[in-house]
Amino acid sequence: MWEICVEDDFSSAHQLIGYEGKCEKLHGHNWRVILCVKCLKTNEIGIGMDFKKLKIILKNILNELDHKVLNEIGFFKEGNNPSAENIAYYIFNKAAELIKDKNTIIKSVTVYETPITYVKYEG
Longest C-alpha distance within the chain, in Å? Predict the structure, then answer.
């Protein structure tokens, strides 16, 4: 089995509802995201999933979040706090909807809120 990962970033604002502290107020981050998939086999030329295709999938998801107030976007507007944990969950599930290859499984999404703090979601 092969693990294939791509990285990208986006900028957005959010506020954590119910949080007691500075993050309760509207503030922004430059988020870094790593999307990893597992491929059960490679194709006839030895590729599990083309990096280019995986990068496009991640970019399309992040474009929905980029330069937005996350609290105003569907999933988060519906009562899911835009925490790093929920952002990773959101991206994981969006990627799972977009990857239709039966030999490719979403392994994890890692979301860096800062260069030294991150969460990883594995479905």
Answer: 54
Domain hosting 12: range is: 2-121
Q: How far apart are CA 29 and CA 45, in angstroms?
A: 40
CATH of the domain at 7: 3.30.479.10
Q: Which element (helix H / strand E) includes 71?
A: none
Strand order in the sheet with 104-114: 68-69, 2-14, 27-39, 104-114, 117-121
Domain count of the fold of the chain: 1
Return the ∠ at Cα 34 (arms to 56 and 54), rounded to 5°: 25
Which mean pLDDT values do the consecutive 10-residue runs of the chain (123 residues) have?
Answer: 97 96 95 97 94 97 98 95 98 95 94 97 94
For the record, the structure tokens of 75 come out as 């999933």
Whether the model clears a pTM of 0.90, i.e. scores above it, the answer is yes
The DSSP line for 6-19 is EEEEEEEEE--TT-
| Torsion, CA 92, CA 57, CA 110, CA 91, rounded to 10 | -30
